[in-house]
Specification:
The chain is of the alpha+beta class and 195 residues long. Helices cover 17% and strands 61% of the residues. It folds into 2 domains: 1-35; 37-194, Porin (Beta Barrel). Strands 1, 2, 3, 4, 5, 6, 7, 8 and 9 form a 9-stranded antiparallel β-sheet that branches.
C-alpha cells in the first residue's frame, strides 16, 4: 500500500512539475518573442534652433525610428529627426539610437544617438540687419541626439510617447557664417510607439 501511495504521489508530482515547466517555457517563449521583436515610433516634433545667425528661432519638425528590442530595458535602432523653420532653414540627424529604460515597470526612458547631422540655409540671410541674397549652403558633420521621455501604455504593446531631445551638430569650420558649428536644436516629440 505504501508503494502504491508513493507511486501515486510521484505521478502527481511529475504531472505538477511537467505542468509548471510547460507554463514556464510558454512564458519565457512569449517574453523572448516580445523582447526580440521590432519597435518603432514616429511623430511631431516642434522645437527651437538655438544657434542660427539671427538668434533663437522656433520651428516645426518630425521624427521616425525603427529597430530591434534587445531586452525589456534596451531598444536599439535607427532614427531620423528633422527641424524646419521655413523653406530656407532646416536641420536634422540620422543616428543609430538606443533607448534605455531604468525600470521595466515605469515608462521613463533615456535616449542617446550618434550619426550624421546636416543643416541647410538658403534664400535671404541677415547681414548686420540687412538682408542679403545667398546661395544654398549645406553643412554635414557629426550628429548626436540626447533625450529623455515617458511612454504611457495604451493597449498591449502600443504606447503614447512624449519626450525632449537635444540635437547637436559638429561641423568642420569652413568659415560659413550662415551655419555655425556647433549647431543646437531642442525638440519636443510626441507620437505613437510600439514595442
Amino acid at each position: 500500500m505504501l508503494l502504491l501511495a508513493s507511486s501515486r504521489s510521484a505521478t502527481v508530482a511529475g504531472v505538477v512539475i511537467a505542468t509548471v515547466l510547460s507554463a514556464a517555457v510558454a512564458v519565457v517563449a512569449e517574453a523572448q518573442e516580445r523582447d526580440g521583436g521590432l519597435w518603432g515610433t514616429f511623430g511631431w516634433a516642434p522645437g527651437w534652433n538655438l544657434t542660427p545667425p539671427d538668434g533663437i528661432t522656433r520651428g516645426r519638425g518630425g521624427y521616425f525610428a525603427l529597430g530591434g528590442t534587445l531586452s525589456r530595458r534596451l531598444l536599439l535602432g535607427g532614427e531620423g529627426s528633422a527641424w524646419r523653420r521655413n523653406e530656407a532653414t532646416l536641420g536634422g540627424n540620422v543616428t543609430l539610437t538606443s533607448l534605455f529604460y531604468p525600470s521595466t515597470r515605469e515608462g521613463f526612458f533615456v535616449k542617446a544617438g550618434l550619426g550624421v547631422g546636416q543643416a541647410r540655409a538658403d534664400g535671404l540671410l541677415p547681414n548686420n540687419g540687412v538682408a542679403i541674397d545667398s546661395d544654398v549652403r549645406f553643412r554635414t558633420g557629426l550628429g548626436t541626439t540626447l533625450g529623455v521621455g515617458w511612454e504611457i501604455r495604451v493597449n498591449g504593446n502600443f504606447y503614447l510617447s512624449a519626450g525632449v531631445n537635444w540635437m547637436l551638430h559638429l561641423f568642420y569650420d569652413d568659415g560659413n557664417e550662415s551655419i555655425r558649428s556647433p549647431n543646437h536644436f531642442l525638440l519636443f516629440q510626441i507620437g505613437p510607439m510600439w514595442h
